[in-house]
Amino acid sequence: MEIRAELETIPARGMRFFSHVPSEEGHVISKRATADCADYRQAEAVARGGGCRGGAGHSGAGGSDDPDGADFVSAVDDLHALLGPAGRAGLAGGSLAIGFANITGYSVLSGLAMGMEPICGQAFGAGRHSMLGLAMQRTTLLLLCSCLPVAALWAYMRPLLLLCGQDEAISAAAQTYILYSLPDLVLQSFLHPLRIYLRAQSVNLPLTFCAAAAIVLHFPVNYLFVSVLRLGIRGVALASVCANLNLVLLLLAYVHLSGVHKRTGGFALSAESFRGWGPLLALSLPSAASVCLEWWWYEIMILLCGLLADPQATVASMGILIQTTSLIYIFPSSLSFGVSTRVANELGANRPHRARRAANVGLACGFALGFAALSFAVSVRRVWARMFTADAAILQLTASALPILGLCELGNCPQTTGCGVLRGSARPKVGANVNLGSFYAVGMPVAVGLAFWAGLDFRGLWLGLLSAQAACVVLMLAVIKTTDWDAQADRAQALTGAASDGGGAAFLGSDEKDALQPKPAAVGGDEKTSLVITIQTDPSS
């Protein structure tokens, strides 16, 4: 079996990236440092500890993507450091708005878009190329409809923040930032489906090149808006919108010039796009739940840190550790996308044995990544935090938690890969149930009990996360081990409308149903199976 690695773009894993801005007193403030702070003064105090109270996510299973997913520690994310010239209230308000947007908007869109992934992957494997165009149209419409309640919530962000006791100036700045970010919701509604549409066809390098070009273009645009035109926080938001606009336009240009769209029915909106949403919603809703459950868990971890003894040090250390997990998460998340595409393609082509082989190879790679992450975390535990701070308390907390973080990644890497297997086999409900049970029924009680009742404080929270990851990987492996791959291949034929009985053909248009013919299972299993590993940077994160 041949494993092929390529770089692509994947959605950011929630709020798990932190770019730093020097404060007026020379301290380092995360651009998301104030997302959960009662006011800017608290954020400044946290910054003195060298860390942040910002959110954690991508993934974004999202993502993930998701996250829609990880990221290369996004260069564009770092450009939000230009919030600094917007003033203290601008920095705090922008940070608060970014956190609010991730939790209430981007995580939802990323998760909903993931419902399209198994449909496109299995349809491509089954040779039902016209379904890819139809799936993209329906998913885009679904995301655009989802933007309406999100936009309404964003429009009333300031009153909500004031109701929660936020400072008036910070709330006003946050409202300004998020209002100027509203066009980004529409762009994300096109961007997520475009990515999945191309990735399902193993079109990866163009995604990488387009994302890189969008990032390069973002530098002068951000500088123009913030430093030349002096638009302040409005300029930062508009620059992020322009980054995603450039990426969408570049991807559309590639699709048009390459002719990829011709075999998938084109992009012309049809009446069929407004019907037969049942199969899509059945996959999108649990996918969104799975992504949000994981993103919000890290938010809760940050909040719990603020209740511990010496909250400045614990929150700062948590920020450093979450950045570390974001860096490590790039690799299993990329592997997960490759596994998902390969499993979906093989099931759609009615080759269950090759789908199982791809899943097993992916899990083996996931465990290898987990051991590499554990070795990395243990080896750098005494020096890693020095890149962020010289505070002795933060250094000690980070050094004590890094081995636990490594053990968490030992479970997280194969678990993330397993999520890709579930996405590829169109079983997002299973993933959502695994996340709910592992993180909230196991991890949360253990974290609270060890941190506050057993007196383990900061380490107790990470041991709670370790228990959640352990439960998650065990459940995920049990699900995959007991998978009936022949039955999953039959489900794929039903989903794509390729089964002889026409099961699942509701996803197709009436004209497509008449043209369906069952595809025979492939004979033999000696062919090479390639596993495409994708890495993605989201310019808007």
- Give the integer mean of the pLDDT values: 77
User: First CA to last CA: what distance?
Assistant: 35 Å
E-strand count: 5
User: Main sheet, how many strands, which sense, barrel?
Assistant: 2 strands, parallel
Return Rg in Å. 23 Å
Plain-language structure description:
With 541 residues, the protein is mainly alpha-helical. It has one domain. Helices cover 67% and strands 3% of the residues. The chain contains 18 helices and 5 strands. It has helices spanning 40-48, 75-79, 88-113, 116-125, 130-155, 157-163, 168-180, 182-199, 205-228, 233-258, 278-305, 311-348, 352-379, 392-424, 428-453, 457-481, 485-496, 510-515; strands spanning 3-5, 20-22, 28-30, 63-67, 531-533. The strands form 2 sheets. Strands 1-5 form a two-stranded parallel sheet. Strands 2-3 form a two-stranded antiparallel ribbon. Strand 2 (20-22) and strand 3 (28-30) form a beta hairpin. Helix 3 packs parallel to helix 8 (182-199), helix 3 (88-113) packs antiparallel against helix 11 and helix 12 (311-348) runs parallel beside helix 14 (392-424). The chain is globular and about 60 Å long. It starts with a strand and ends in an 8-residue tail after the last strand. 63% of the residues are buried. Mean pLDDT is 77; it is low at 1-82 and 498-541. The chain crosses the membrane at residues 139-157, 203-225, 231-255, 276-298, 318-337, 358-380, 392-411, 432-454, 460-480. It is a multi-pass membrane protein.
